[in-house]
Write a structure and sequence with these properties.
The protein has four helices and no strands. It has about 425 residues and is mainly α. The longest helix is centred in the middle third of the chain and has 168 residues, at about 90-255. One of its GO terms (biological process) is signal transduction.
C-alpha cells in the first residue's frame, strides 16, 4: 500500500517538475511569460487529473478490501479479493486471499471432524441404547425367571399335595368303575329296546305311506271322473239350450200356421218345458259336481299334507334310528374307554411314588434356580446403571457437537 501511495506522489510531482523545466526553457528562448503560464496551468491540470484517477483507484481498492472484511466478519468466507483490480495493492490482496483460504480449510477440517465425532457418537449411542434395551430385556427375563422359579418351587410343593389327593381320587375312580359298567349295561339294554321300537315304527310308517298312496290314487281317479262328468253335463246343457231354441222356433212356426198348427204348438211347448227342466237339472248337477270337485281338491290337499307329514315322520324315524345306533356305538366306545381308564388308573397307582419323588427334586432345583436368578438380576441392574451413565455422557457429547456444528454452519465457505 505504501508503494502504491509513493507511486501516486511521483505521478503527481513528476509532471509538474517536467513542465517547470520546459517553462524555463521556453522563457529563456522566447522571453514570454504567457507561454510559461499556459504550460504551468496545463501541467497542473494534468497532475490533478492523474492524481484524481489515482485517488479513485485507491478508494476502489479500499472498498473492495472493506467488502471482503465485512463478509468475513459476517461469517462468509466464500468471497475473495480480486487481485486483477487491486492496482498497486496486489500483495495485500493476495495476503487477504491466503488468510481466507487458510480459514476456510480450518473451518472445513473442523466441520469434517465434528461430523465424524457426531456420527461416531450416534453409532456409540445407538449401540449403547441397544445394549441398554438388551440389558433391560435380560433384567426382565431374569426377574421373570426368578419369579417363575419361586412359583415353580411353590407349585412343586403344591404338586406333592395334589398327587396325594389324586391318589385318593384314583381309588375313588377305581371303585366307581364297577358301578359305571353296570349302568352302561342297562343303558345298552334300553338302547336295544329303543332300536326294536324304531324298527316297528318304521314298518307301521311304511304301511301308512302305502295306504295313503292308494287313497291318493283313488281320490285322483275320482277327480278325473268328476271332470269327465262335467264335460258330459256341459254337452247336455248345450243340447238342452239348442232344444229350447228349436221349440221356440217350432212354436213360432205353429203360430203362423194358425188353427192347423195348434197341435204342433202344444208339442213344441212340451218340448220347450222338457228342455228347460233339462237345463235346470244340468245346473244342479254342475253345482253338485263343483262341490264334489272342491271336496276332492281338499282331499287331495289333505293327502298332500299327509304325504308330507309321512315323509317328515320317515325322516324323524330315520334320525331316531341313527341316533339309537350312534348311542349303541357310543356305549361300545365308552365301555372300551372305561377299560382303558381302568388300566390307566392301575398304572397311575404304580407311578405315583416316582412322580412324588420327581416333584420334590424339581422343588429343590427351582429354589436353587430362583437364588441364582436373583444374583444375576442384581448384576444386570448394575450393568444397566453403568450403561445409562455412559448414554448420558454420549448425549452430552452429541449436544456439544451439535452446538459446534451450529456455529460452523453459520460460516459460508463455498
Amino acid at each position: 500500500m505504501k508503494k502504491f501511495f509513493s507511486l501516486s506522489r511521483i505521478a503527481f510531482i513528476l509532471p509538474i517538475l517536467v513542465m517547470v523545466i520546459f517553462a524555463a526553457i521556453i522563457k529563456f528562448q522566447t522571453g514570454s511569460w504567457i507561454a510559461v503560464v499556459l504550460l504551468l496551468v496545463s501541467s497542473l491540470l494534468s497532475s490533478i487529473i492523474l492524481n484524481t484517477v489515482s485517488i479513485f483507484s485507491i478508494i476502489n481498492n479500499i472498498k473492495q478490501f472493506e467488502n471482503s472484511i465485512n463478509a468475513i466478519k459476517q461469517g462468509d468466507f466464500s468471497q475473495t479479493v480480486d487481485v486483477t483490480k487491486s492496482i498497486g495493492a496486489e500483495g495485500l490482496a493476495r495476503g487477504i486471499n491466503d488468510v481466507i483460504t487458510d480459514i476456510k480449510a480450518l473451518l472445513q477440517n473442523f466441520h469434517n471432524l465434528s461430523s465424524s465425532i457426531l456420527e461416531s457418537s450416534k453409532t456409540v449411542s445407538a449401540t449403547a441404547e441397544q445394549a441398554a434395551n438388551a440389558m433391560n430385556d435380560i433384567s426382565k427375563t431374569m426377574d421373570e425367571i426368578a419369579r417363575g422359579a419361586s412359583d415353580q418351587a411353590q407349585q412343586a410343593q403344591h404338586g406333592v399335595e395334589m398327587v396325594d389327593n389324586l391318589s385318593e381320587q384314583i381309588d375313588f375312580v377305581y371303585e366307581s368303575y364297577s358301578r359305571i359298567t353296570e349302568e352302561t349295561k342297562k343303558i345298552n339294554d334300553l338302547n336295544n329296546i329303543g332300536l326294536d321300537s324304531v324298527s316297528i315304527l318304521r314298518k307301521k310308517s311304511k304301511e301308512n305311506n302305502e295306504t295313503a298312496e292308494k287313497i291318493f290314487a283313488v281320490i285322483e281317479k275320482l277327480t278325473n271322473t268328476t271332470n269327465d262328468i262335467g264335460l258330459f253335463v256341459e254337452s247336455i246343457e248345450s243340447i238342452a239350450e239348442q232344444t229350447n231354441l228349436l221349440a221356440l222356433n217350432a212354436a213360432i212356426e205353429a203360430a203362423r200356421a194358425g188353427e192347423a198348427g195348434r197341435g204342433f204348438a202344444v208339442v213344441a211347448e212340451e218340448v220347450r218345458k222338457l228342455a228347460d227342466q233339462s237345463r235346470k237339472s244340468t245346473e244342479e248337477i254342475n253345482l253338485l259336481m263343483k262341490s264334489i270337485q272342491e271336496e276332492s281338491q281338499l282331499a287331495i290337499e289333505s293327502m298332500e299334507l299327509m304325504k308330507k307329514m309321512s315323509q317328515e315322520q320317515n325322516i324323524a324315524v330315520n334320525k331316531t334310528d341313527s341316533a339309537f345306533n350312534d348311542i349303541a356305538n357310543a356305549i361300545t366306545n365308552i365301555v372300551g374307554k372305561i377299560n382303558e381308564v381302568n388300566q390307566a388308573v392301575s398304572k397311575m397307582q404304580q407311578d405315583k411314588i416316582q412322580v412324588t419323588s420327581a416333584i420334590e427334586s424339581i422343588s429343590s432345583v427351582s429354589e436353587e434356580t430362583a437364588a441364582a436368578s436373583q444374583e444375576v438380576a442384581a448384576t444386570t441392574e448394575q450393568e444397566l446403571q453403568a450403561i445409562s451413565e455412559m448414554q448420558k455422557a454420549i448425549n452430552n457429547l452429541v449436544d456439544l457437537v451439535n452446538i459446534l456444528n451450529s456455529k460452523l454452519n453459520s460460516y459460508s465457505i463455498r
